[in-house]
Specification:
Strand content: 5-15%
CATH class: Alpha Beta
Largest sheet: 2 strands, parallel
Organism: marine sediment metagenome
Pfam family, one: Thioesterase
InterPro entries: AB_hydrolase_fold, TEII, Thioesterase
Domain Thioesterase: 2-82
Family: Belongs to the thioesterase family.
Structural class: alpha+beta
Helix content: 25-40%
Length: 92
């Protein structure tokens, strides 16, 4: 990516905006959602740790499920089948 000026020109503003949001976001508690929440995390994810997923439970008055999968923050790149199975189970 760094060696591709056109790609850098396109991606850099997006990455900067993401970083600004990450640095300035402040959580504001709201009324919990009346729907189930399914939270997934990669077991080696240091940004969104599996233990941090438990905090999502307070965001729902419905059921809450958490699942830890092999991988890091980008586990979805290697766990598409597992994600698909979880989504299909949730919708059943």
């Amino acid at each position: 990516v760094l060696a591709e000026p056109d790609l850098m020109e396109m991606l850099l503003p997006i990455i900067k905006a993401d970083m600004q949001m990450f640095e300035t976001y402040r959580y504001t508690p709201e009324t919990p959602l009346a729907c189930p929440i399914y939270a997934m995390a990669g077991e080696q994810d240091r940004l969104c740790t599996p233990s941090a997923m438990a905090g999502w439970e307070r965001e729902t008055s419905g059921s809450f499920f958490t699942e830890t999968v092999a991988g890091n923050h980008f586990f979805i790149n290697n766990a598409a089948d597992r994600m698909r199975a979880t989504i299909l189970r949730a919708l059943a």
